[in-house]
Amino acid sequence: MKKIRWYGWAAMLGVTMLLVDVYAHAGLLEEPVVGVAISRQARLESPLMHTYLVAGRHALRWTPFMRASSRRLAAAAWGDAFASIREHPERALYVLDNESRGVVRGVLAPMYWGAPLFLLIALIGFALRPRAIHTLGAHPG
C-alpha cells in the first residue's frame, strides 16, 4: 500500500472543506429574501462567497435531494441574521457576518478561508515534491 504524502492529505482536507462550504452556501440561496440579498452583494463585494454561491447553485441543480438539508445547515449557521437581513437587505453581508452566532457558524468560519488555503498548500506541495533523478546515459537495472 502506497503512503499518502502530506500534500495529499492537504488536498483531501481542502476538498472536504470546499464541499461543506458549497453545500452550506447553497442553503443560503434557498432562503427567499435572504438569498437574493446576499447573492447581489456577494457578486460585487465578496468574490470568494460569490464563488461558493454559484457553485452551490449548480450543486443543488445536480443534487436536488440535498436542498432541504442544505437549507437546514444554512439556517443553523446563519439563521440568527436572517431577520435583520430581511429588514435591511442592503447590509446583507455585514449582518450575515456580524450577527451570526453558534457552534455551526464557528465550525464553518475557518472553512471559508481554509478550503482555498489548503488547496493552495497542496498544489505547492505537489509542485515541489521530491522526484527521482535520472542522469544521462544511466539505465536502471
What is the overall pLDDT average? 91
Strand content: under 5%
Tell me, briefly, the overall form. elongated
Could you say which structural class the secondary elements and strand pairing correspond to? mainly alpha
| Poorly predicted ranges | none
Number of helices: 7
Give the SSE order as H and E letters: HHHHHHH
Give the radius of gyration: 20 Å
| Number of separate structural domains | 1
Percent of residues in helices comes to: over 70%
Largest sheet: none
Topology, number of strands: 0
Span from first to last CA?
Answer: 23 Å
Keywords: Membrane, Transmembrane, Transmembrane helix
Transmembrane segments: 7-26, 111-128
Plain-language structure description:
- There is one protein chain.
- By secondary structure, the protein is an all-alpha fold.
- The chain is elongated and about 75 Å long.
- It has helices spanning 6-30, 32-45, 47-62, 67-78, 82-87, 92-98, 103-127.
- The mean pLDDT is 91.
- Helix 1 crosses helix 2 (32-45).
- The chain has one domain (6-127).
Topology:
Layout: H1 6-30, H2 32-45, H3 47-62, H4 67-78, H5 82-87, H6 92-98, H7 103-127
Helix pairs in contact: 1-2, 1-3, 1-4, 1-7, 2-3, 4-7
